[in-house]
Amino acid sequence: MNAQRIRASLKKLLAIFIVICLLLGGVAQYLFRSVSDLYLVSVQGRLEERALQYKKSFLFKMNSDLQMLRAMACMLEDAEQNATLDDTGRLMSNLWDASITAGFGCLRYFDVQGAGKQLRSGEAVTTIQLDQQVVELQTVVQQALQGEPASSSAFYDAYLGYNVVGYAAPVYSNGQISGVLACSVSTETYAEILTCVSSISDIGAVAVLSADGEVFASTRTHQSQGFYDLNGSDYLNEELCGRFMQALAAEEPQFFEFTRNHVSLYACVMPMGINTDKIIIVDTDKGVSDAVSDVVRYAHLIAILFAGTSILFALAVLWLNRRYSMQLLQVAYHDRLTGAYNRYKFFQLLDQRRKKNTAYTVAAINIRKFKYINELFSSDRSDQLLKDICAALQRCMEPGEFFCRDTADTFAICLNTADRERAKERLNAILEQLKDSGQNMHPTYPVTFYGGCATPDDCVDKNSNEELMSHVMLALSYAKQSQQATVTFYDSKAHDRETLNNYIENRMEWALEHGEFQMYFQPKMDLQNHTISGAEALVRWIVDGKQTIFPDQFIPLFERNGFCIKLDFYMVEEACKQIRAWMDDGRSPIPISVNQTKLLLYEDDYVERLCAITRKYDVPNRYITLEILEGLALENPEKVAVCIDQLHSHGFSISMDDFGNGYASLTTLSQLQIDELKLDRSFLLQADQNTEHNRRKILEVVIEVAKRLHISIVAEGIETEAHEQLMREMHCNYGQGYFYSRPILADEFTAKFLQNDAQ
Ligand code: C2E
Ligand code: MG
Ligand code: MG
Asked: How far, in Å, CA of 292 to CA of 289, rounded?
């Protein structure tokens, strides 16, 4: 997984975490709300219950006041049948003592015409008129005149000089209403009842208000002061005032919450059931409400703290992770020694580059003889050289270009062009700049570089970084081998060759064991009498019985990897087998020439092994001719001469193959005791063309010298009768070539060229 993906998933996790926190917060909020609502319901129930208690106490007092008044009205009725208003005034004075006991502030009597008397403590009875009284009093009196004892809302009694509640009861005379007895009771009396009940029930402010907000009576506690003054209280804003007025106007009990001095309060407004008065009760029992709201507030706070801490924790994890992944990225994408990108990162950048659809070339550069530099100078200085190269490469990079340290002293670079010439120029320019880095290490030791390049167009899979890189590395290996070119490009043919070589190397052992290497024969003809004088054994590799691979494609590789030794012994054995078969078949065997790699001559037991093979098949050694290449004689003439002597002593014949192809001289011929000289096919071609007169002369001399040294001469590559004629004229002994036969399998060869002596 790359860093961006890790970061993205962490962010996703964090987002999910935050959402979960928010959800939890929401659930907590919901629960707190539910608790609050439950609490509100319980508060509401409690307040309504209390309001009912107040109402009952209040109504009980009012009722008892009214009953008292009615009783007094009855006393008037019983005592004063047909009495005048003045008589009534006198009777009132008599009743006054009872009024004081009942707590009445004053007594009033009105006859049906509205003429009346009034009396209060310490004063004489005075005359009054109903229509001059306050509306509230007039209303209750009118109600009583209708036969209904009545009570009023609170009103200011000017006669008494304080707020009162008015009561009125009809006075009967002979069964007819003859007047109304009214009394005023101070609202303070009711306030006392409220205060008294409130102190018992330990509840906050209670009041009785008229529908328009006039305070009838209220508890005399500290909290209640100014509480119900809807016109001027500090906490009653317009909105709250409106809610109070709405509640006062409603017919049903009302409950609502509000805040005063940052304390949540709950109000219950309940109709009194008389007039339009309402009892209002406000729970200022802030102990309970505050406890709940505190719990809610603390729970909120804890939830917020929890969410905040969790988010901080998650952020810290994210930060740590980011830091850690930065370190991981540094390790994952960078080379430890130089700090440059590594191949993995380089491939990622290549992928991004490919998406941009702009042409590019990938080049790999290498330091020539870096191993030697490592040996010669200390590894510290070599490391420094690599660092200097990285720094220099960094300076060389143009926008869009990038590089990495691939392995050891190999650096890969992405260049901004796919054009070979421009890429070569650019890379050469870079290599030129890198030279200075070498001078830093050692002023006199020249550090040189070589590079290989390839483009995506060279690849079968244009999206494969691996394929591109392997092409680049192949190109680099050409540059390494080449002494002239500093920068080389990938060559698909070379790649195919490499692929075939790999295939060959992987299969050669198996192929030898399973008989895939087959021996073909090509006749060697006597030019004078047209008879067969021998055959050359030529190897063919038949892959899976189908495809034929020719020796030119694998012998050079086998010579490099040493497998040729095994193969040549195998071919000698196959040749012996064939000679034995001919002999057993009653045919006169012919000598078989077997090509021998130069490596064999360096094998200590070469001659012994050859003898062992011929001995195994009981084949006389003279039937085996060993063809060695002329170049071998030049490499180590003494060793070759010794080996040839040994082979001669065991009866083998020696043929020098491909003479004229290399640099072997006539002197070589004289130094080595060879029996046969095979003129390279190129000799014949040049002589045939007749263009190079000198070449022909040389050939004549070579033949002449060979003859003198008693070396028989074979002309290779006789393809036409003219070739044969030419070689015969030049006194060549033998000829070999397609003119006589292509290399063919043993059975065909036997049938074609070897008679059965028994027949
Ligand atoms: P060589 O030993 O010089 O073999 C002669 C090559 O010339 C053979 O190619 C043969 O097929 C070819 N040739 C013969 N006549 C004509 C002709 O008229 N015209 C043309 N154009 N070519 C002709 P081949 O079989 O492909 O072998 C190539 C080389 O591989 C041989 O050259 C030899 O050096 C090497 N070689 C073949 N078999 C063996 C082997 O068993 N061991 C070793 N060490 N080398 C082998
Ligand atoms: Mg040969
Ligand atoms: Mg040859």
From this structure: 5
Exposed/middle/buried for 187, CB within 10 Å: 0-12, 13-18, 19+?
Answer: buried
Q: Which pair of tokens denotes residue 83? A: 């009495």
Ligand 2: centre distance to CA 613 (Å): 20
Residue 381 pLDDT class (50, 70, 90 cuts): confident
Q: Which pLDDT score, from 0 to 100, does residue 739 have? A: 96
Tell me how far apart the alpha carbons of residues 279 and 203 are, in angstroms, rounded to a whole number. Answer: 14
Centre of ligand 3 from the C-alpha of residue 459, in Å: 38
Per the CB < 8 A criterion, the answer to whether 553 and 500 are in contact is yes
Residue 620 in tokens: 């006389």
**pLDDT the model gives residue 751:** 94
What residues contact residue 424 under an 8 Å CB cut-off, 6+ apart?
453, 487, 489
CA-closest residue to ligand 1 atom 43? 595
- Counting from 1 in the atom list of ligand 1, the atom nearest the Cα of 551 is 30
Q: Is 319 exposed, middle or buried (0-12, 13-18, 19+ CB in 10 A)?
A: exposed
Please give the distance of CA 641 from its chain centroid, rounded to a whole number: 72
Nearest CA to ligand 1 atom 7: 717
How far is it, in rounded angstroms, from Cα 247 to Cα 264? Answer: 18
The span from the CA of 371 to the CA of 355, in Å, is 38
- 410-415 and 402-407 strand pairing: antiparallel
DSSP conformation class of 623: G
Task: Give the single-character DSSP code of 483.
Answer: S
Ramachandran angles phi, psi of 750, nearest 5°: -60, -50
Are the beta carbons of 258 and 240 closer than 8 angstroms? yes
Which of 525, 538, 726, 736 for a ligand 1 pocket mutation test, highest count of atoms within 8 Å of Cβ?
538
In this predicted model, which residue has the larger pLDDT, 601 or 315?
A: 601
d(CA 102, CA 734) in angstroms, rounded, equals: 168
Which range among 271-285, 399-413, 585-599 shows the weakest confidence by mean pLDDT? 271-285
What's the half-sphere exposure (Cβ side, CA atoms, 13 Å) at 238?
0
Please say whether the dihedral angle defined by the alpha carbons of residues 148, 154, 156 and 158, taken in this order, is positive or negative: positive
Q: Which residues line ligand 1 (CB under 6 A)?
A: 522, 538-539, 550-552, 555, 564, 568, 571, 595-597, 627, 657-658, 681, 716-719, 736-738, 743
**Distance from residue 682's CA to the centre of ligand 1 (Å):** 13
Write out the two tokens for 20. Answer: 């979960």
pLDDT of residue 341: 95
Give me 261's structure tokens: 């001095």
Instruction: Return the bridge partners of 658, or none.
Output: none
Residues 6+ apart with CB under 8 A from 139: 150, 152
| Rounded Cα gap, residues 381 and 390, in angstroms | 14
Can you tell me the distance from the alpha carbon of 401 to that of 193, in angstroms, rounded to the nearest whole number?
A: 97
Backbone φ and ψ for 280, nearest 5 degrees, come out as -125, 135
Phi-psi category of residue 8: left, alpha or beta, with phi > 0 → left and psi -120 to 50 → alpha: alpha
CB 244, CB 256: distance < 8 Å: no
Say how many Å lie between the CA of residue 123 and the centre of ligand 3: 166
Which tokens is 616 given?
Answer: 């195994």
Structure tokens at 463: 């999206």
Judge if pTM exceeds 0.70.
no
- List domains and CATH numbers for the chain: 200-288 (3.30.450.20), 334-490 (3.30.70.270), 518-753 (3.20.20.450)
Task: Find the mean pLDDT for residues 164-169.
Answer: 90
